[in-house]
């Protein structure tokens, strides 16, 4: 005789059917969502030490007392004795060119022509992914300018870390660095250096007469909602309300005060460094949000809100903009890329295939480096 406590197969089947909805209902709360890789703690610790040094140095007086100068006071470059000593004297503002790359800098010869004759007004810094087999450019401006880099990965905050690392290095290396231009290996100049320098130094706004940063800041993009929630619901709160979230170009030119603001920040960084959800990785572009959001929240009137780097998104693929090929390079293309809806014309452009170096060099002197 069967036990009165034995459940019939029908009862077990019913219980099983009833449990399925409960599993779907409770699973998201019991099982953490899958996320993309996070920044290693060791990298974060090293970066924090670097950023603190940069902020402390920037908080010091911009120039020494006359007595110190007379005594021959000097300061060592971030790159050590290999790049000599920089005397502490009042200098013209310099432009720090920050190249963020994971491949060879094939356009270094073109940039060398752009830099020629103006080395007293600029410095060059390169952050390369350690995994990339980077061949150092033989040109003087790039030689020995590779900074200690860490791994970078698309759809992660590692690209923000690399940019902050470049900014901190340039702040430490030369107190005269006043403008910080972030570029990629596929960027090329569209104007001669004097045109860029005039653009940066002449743009002054506000009651204090400060220079402004050139960074794209947009607040009404169609993808803004998906990008804001890429890390999960309400994850960005309370530090970054949805109404304060911005989108912009990955590449920019920041003033020194904004560069210090970026490397000093901890509050917003603690949100933007969080990894995105795997299921939302196609909405995860942290480097296009962190910088415009931070600057717009902390100094809303301190930026032009448009970029000096022209990018063609008309036929983008997999999140990448149009890549210009050798047959597209011409004087007409350069003149077209210069055009801008802003006050100033574009100074740089991307994205160019490596094979474009030859055609670009042919028109460098006659068009690119001539206003």
TrEMBL record:
GO MF annotation terms: glycosyltransferase activity
Keyword field contains Oxidoreductase: no
Bilayer topology annotation: Single-pass type II membrane protein
UniProt keyword Protein biosynthesis present: no
Entry's localization field: Membrane
UniProt keyword list: Glycoprotein, Glycosyltransferase, Membrane, Transferase, Transmembrane, Transmembrane helix
Transmembrane regions: 6-27
Domain of life: Eukaryota
GO cellular component: membrane
Protein name in the entry: Core-2/I-branching beta-1,6-N-acetylglucosaminyltransferase family protein
Annotated organism of origin: Panicum miliaceum (Proso millet)
């Amino acid at each position: 005789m069967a036990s009165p406590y034995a459940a019939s197969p029908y009862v077990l089947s019913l219980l099983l059917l009833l449990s399925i909805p409960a599993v779907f209902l409770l699973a998201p709360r019991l099982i953490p969502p899958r996320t993309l890789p996070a920044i290693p703690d060791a990298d974060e610790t090293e970066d924090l030490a670097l950023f603190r040094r940069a902020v402390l140095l920037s908080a010091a007086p911009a120039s020494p007392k006359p007595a110190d100068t007379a005594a021959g006071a000097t300061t060592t470059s971030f790159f050590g004795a290999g790049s000599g000593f920089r005397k502490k004297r009042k200098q013209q503002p310099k432009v720090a060119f920050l190249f963020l790359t994971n491949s060879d800098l094939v356009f270094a010869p073109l940039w060398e022509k752009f830099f020629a004759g103006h080395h007293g007004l600029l410095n060059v810094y390169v952050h390369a992914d350690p995994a990339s087999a980077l061949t150092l450019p033989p040109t003087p401006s790039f030689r020995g300018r590779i900074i200690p880099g860490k791994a970078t990965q698309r759809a992660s905050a590692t690209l923000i870390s690399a940019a902050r690392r470049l900014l901190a290095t340039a702040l430490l290396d030369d107190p005269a660095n006043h403008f910080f231009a972030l570029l990629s290996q596929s960027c090329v100049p569209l104007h001669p250096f004097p045109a860029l320098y005039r653009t940066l130094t002449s743009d002054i706004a506000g009651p204090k007469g400060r220079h402004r940063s050139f960074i794209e800041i947009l607040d009404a993009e169609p993808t803004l909602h998906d990008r804001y929630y890429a890390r999960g619901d309400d994850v960005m709160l309370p530090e970054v309300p949805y109404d304060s979230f911005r989108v912009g170009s990955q590449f920019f030119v920041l003033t020194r005060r904004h560069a210090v603001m970026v490397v000093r920040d901890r509050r917003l960084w603690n949100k933007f460094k969080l990894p995105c959800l795997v299921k939302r990785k196609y909405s995860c572009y942290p480097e296009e949000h962190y910088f415009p959001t931070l600057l717009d929240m902390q100094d809303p009137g301190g930026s032009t809100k448009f970029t000096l780097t022209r990018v063609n998104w008309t036929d983008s693929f997999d999140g990448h903009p149009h890549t210009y090929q050798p047959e597209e390079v011409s004087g007409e293309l350069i003149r077209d890329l210069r055009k801008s809806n802003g006050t100033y014309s574009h100074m740089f452009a991307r994205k160019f295939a490596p094979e474009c170096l030859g055609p670009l060099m042919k028109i460098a002197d006659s068009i690119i480096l001539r206003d």
